[in-house]
């Protein structure tokens, strides 16, 4: 019987088979950036409930910066993947939906009791719905090229940073966490949430800066250095100013969008009329 079940001695020189294919680092790198941003968003929640609001705001701000970088890094390294896209959406929901809602609830919305919690829920759910709609819109092959310069509604990172305006004002000396200010903060947060799920077009700025004229390169460097210096020296004043300027430019973007939409509709009507005329001539 021992001849039938002889002991098996594997060849030490035989190469081991890989169970899974190795993943290139260019695919892993963008996902690491996304996970780092997710850690910052979750940490912001903890910091807020520890009373460290200033550091919590910084964490969400850095998470927004990393969110703007990970997609560009993926395209630069040619490491885009379906997994990365899904991970980015889930991280955005936590960083720009859940984290700002809980930070605001710990800061001011809790003064309104259950109504304040409802406002926090509205903002978080609006962020989730906005991200889901954004993912679906990416698969639309009939979207005109000019519409890619606009978001449908307020993007989640911009909505999160805009919703935190009462905290910026608080650090600037405005009593934004009092019982009197709480109803106004609640209404403001709900309006920002509605803006995220609305169909109001907002300028994306994706094509901004693709080509910079040579004579503007040095002024651009000087302006960037000055902007960084101002943000480092007066972070909450610059954040509040950026939010107010962003909100003020939304009507301008809407007007520009409608103008481009009318032009696009007129061009399509002319193309259809030309096609009908050519058909009648051929007949």
UniProtKB/TrEMBL annotation:
Signal peptide: none annotated. It catalyses: a CDP-1,2-diacyl-sn-glycerol + L-serine = a 1,2-diacyl-sn-glycero-3-phospho-L-serine + CMP + H(+). Its EC number is 2.7.8.8. GO terms for cellular component: endomembrane system; membrane. The chain crosses the membrane at residues 27-49, 55-77, 89-108, 114-132, 152-174, 186-205, 217-248. It is an enzyme of class 2 (transferase). It is found in: Endomembrane system. Keywords: Lipid biosynthesis, Lipid metabolism, Membrane, Phospholipid biosynthesis, Phospholipid metabolism, Transferase, Transmembrane, Transmembrane helix. GO terms for biological process: phospholipid biosynthetic process. It holds the Pfam family CDP-OH_P_tran_2. InterPro entries: CDP-alcohol_PTase-I, CDP-diaglyc--ser_O-PTrfase, CDP-OH_P_trans, CDP-OH_P_trans_C, CDP-OH_PTrfase_TM_dom, CDP_ALCOHOL_P_TRANSF_CS. Gene3D superfamilies: 1.20.120.1760. The keyword Cytoplasm does not apply. Residues 217-251 form the CDP-alcohol phosphatidyltransferase C-terminal domain. Belongs to the CDP-alcohol phosphatidyltransferase class-I family. PANTHER family: CDP-DIACYLGLYCEROL--GLYCEROL-3-PHOSPHATE 3-PHOSPHATIDYLTRANSFERASE-RELATED (PTHR14269), CDP-DIACYLGLYCEROL--SERINE O-PHOSPHATIDYLTRANSFERASE (PTHR14269:SF61). This is CDP-diacylglycerol--serine O-phosphatidyltransferase. The gene is pssA.
């Amino acid at each position: 019987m021992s001849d039938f079940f002889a002991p098996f001695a594997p060849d030490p020189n035989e190469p081991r088979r890989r169970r899974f294919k190795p993943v290139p680092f260019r695919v892993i790198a963008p996902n690491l950036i996304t996970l780092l941003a997710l850690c910052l968003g979750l940490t912001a929640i903890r910091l807020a409930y520890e009373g460290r609001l200033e550091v919590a705001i910084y964490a969400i701000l850095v998470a927004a910066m990393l969110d703007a970088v990970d997609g560009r890094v993926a395209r630069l390294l040619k490491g885009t993947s379906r997994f990365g896209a899904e991970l980015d959406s889930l991280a955005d929901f936590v960083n720009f939906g859940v984290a700002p809602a809980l930070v605001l609830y710990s800061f001011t919305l809790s003064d309104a009791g259950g109504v304040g919690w409802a406002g926090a829920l509205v903002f978080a759910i609006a962020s989730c719905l906005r991200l889901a709609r954004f993912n679906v819109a990416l698969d639309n092959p009939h979207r005109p090229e000019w519409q890619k310069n606009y978001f449908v509604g307020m993007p989640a990172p911009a909505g999160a940073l805009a919703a935190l305006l009462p905290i910026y004002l608080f650090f600037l000396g405005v009593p934004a966490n009092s019982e009197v200010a709480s109803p106004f903060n609640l209404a403001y947060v709900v309006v920002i949430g509605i803006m995220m799920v609305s169909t109001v077009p907002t300028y994306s700025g994706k094509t901004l800066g693709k080509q910079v004229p040579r004579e503007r390169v040095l002024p651009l460097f000087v302006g960037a250095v000055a902007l960084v210096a101002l943000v480092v020296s007066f972070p909450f004043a610059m954040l509040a100013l950026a939010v107010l300027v962003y909100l003020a430019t939304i009507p301008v973007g809407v007007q520009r969008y409608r103008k481009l939409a009318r032009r696009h509709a007129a061009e399509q009507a002319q193309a259809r009329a030309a096609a009908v005329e050519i058909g009648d001539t051929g007949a």
